[in-house]
From TrEMBL:
<comment type="pathway">
    <text>Purine metabolism; AMP biosynthesis via salvage pathway; AMP from ADP: step 1/1.</text>
</comment>
<feature type="domain" description="Adenylate kinase active site lid">
    <location>
        <begin position="127"/>
        <end position="162"/>
    </location>
</feature>
<dbReference type="InterPro" id="IPR006259">
    <property type="entry name" value="Adenyl_kin_sub"/>
</dbReference>
<keyword id="KW-0963">Cytoplasm</keyword>
<feature type="binding site">
    <location>
        <position position="127"/>
    </location>
    <ligand>
        <name>ATP</name>
    </ligand>
</feature>
<dbReference type="InterPro" id="IPR027417">
    <property type="entry name" value="P-loop_NTPase"/>
</dbReference>
<dbReference type="Pfam" id="PF05191">
    <property type="entry name" value="ADK_lid"/>
</dbReference>
<feature type="binding site">
    <location>
        <position position="153"/>
    </location>
    <ligand>
        <name>Zn(2+)</name>
    </ligand>
</feature>
<dbReference type="GO" id="GO:0008270">
    <property type="term" value="F:zinc ion binding"/>
</dbReference>
<feature type="region of interest" description="LID">
    <location>
        <begin position="126"/>
        <end position="163"/>
    </location>
</feature>
<feature type="binding site">
    <location>
        <position position="150"/>
    </location>
    <ligand>
        <name>Zn(2+)</name>
    </ligand>
</feature>
<keyword id="KW-0808">Transferase</keyword>
<dbReference type="GO" id="GO:0005524">
    <property type="term" value="F:ATP binding"/>
</dbReference>
<feature type="binding site">
    <location>
        <begin position="136"/>
        <end position="137"/>
    </location>
    <ligand>
        <name>ATP</name>
    </ligand>
</feature>
<feature type="binding site">
    <location>
        <position position="31"/>
    </location>
    <ligand>
        <name>AMP</name>
    </ligand>
</feature>
<feature type="binding site">
    <location>
        <begin position="57"/>
        <end position="59"/>
    </location>
    <ligand>
        <name>AMP</name>
    </ligand>
</feature>
<feature type="binding site">
    <location>
        <position position="130"/>
    </location>
    <ligand>
        <name>Zn(2+)</name>
    </ligand>
</feature>
Length: 213
């Protein structure tokens, strides 16, 4: 199974990804997570992309494609894989098509999650993530048992530098300009299925799960 998770910032891609990988065993490849890990570890890549990500802009296609194809070549992908946050524009989608064809693999489905803009802003501004294990919470929708502390590993919860309201609006604008053309791109080849991300996390997941069975 080869899946793409598509949708605006805050639509719930990461939240649904956790459930999909737990139930279907696919390898999760999130470009955002990979970039953030590199920033945290202060690698050469991390230093290159730190400012770009904090400002809400996109990292270059060249760097992103290389990172994704390296990862795909080095993973055991028996149960398949799920790309989260990639592709992010038509150039990246074409590069992925080429990679799939070269490797005789076929895209199964694009899971497109959408939600209203004010819902996105409130989710992004209220999101908190664990500094250590990356588990995601929300100050009102999904609060931890102890305020500011991760339920999973007990570490401190922090706010992503790109999660303030101003940067969130900028990220949504970039999504509209550069990423939303992918909806039509994948619709045309009959691969896209839309899910209403305004609904509760579990409700969205049940619909996704049914569509993958
Ligand atoms: P990335 O990490 O991909 O971020 P994003 O696409 O902006 O998505 P988010 O992580 O903000 O949101 P999400 O949809 O995963 O929502 P979540 O489930 O966490 O990218 C970050 C940056 O990296 C980019 O800006 C760019 O700079 C760079 N980058 C990444 N990929 C790139 C690429 N391919 N090319 C170039 N640059 C790239 O949910 C959000 C909050 O809402 C959480 O608190 C959650 O608990 C809550 N929530 C979620 N769903 C629900 C629900 N249904 N009901 C109630 N609350 C919910």
């Amino acid at each position: 199974m080869i899946l793409i998770l598509l949708g605006p910032p805050g639509a719930g891609k990461g939240s649904q990804a956790t459930k999909i990988i737990n139930n279907f065993g696919v390898t999760h490849i999130s470009t955002g997570d990979i970039f953030r890990k590199n920033i945290k570890e202060e690698t050469e890549l991390g230093l290159k992309v730190k400012e770009i990500i904090a400002s809400g802009s996109l990292v270059s296609d060249e760097l992103t494609n290389e990172l994704v194809f390296d990862r795909l070549s080095n993973e055991t992908l028996n149960a398949g894989f799920m790309l989260d946050g990639y592709p992010r524009n038509i150039n990246q989608a074409k590069a992925l098509d080429e990679w799939l064809s070269k490797n005789s693999r076929e895209l199964t489905k694009v899971i497109y999650i959408d939600a209203d803009i004010e819902v996105l802003i409130s989710r992004i501004s209220g999101r908190r993530v664990c500094k250590n294990c990356g588990a995601t919470y929300h100050v009102t929708n999904l609060s931890p048992k102890v305020e500011g502390i991760c339920d999973v590993c007990g570490s401190q919860l922090v706010q992503r530098p790109d999660d303030n309201e101003e940067t969130a609006r900028q990220r949504i604008e970039i999504y509209e300009e550069q990423t939303s053309p992918l909806i039509n791109y994948y619709e045309k080849v009959g691969k896209l299925q839309k899910f209403n991300g305004n609904n509760e996390i579990d409700e969205v997941y049940v619909e996704i799960e049914n569509s993958l069975k």
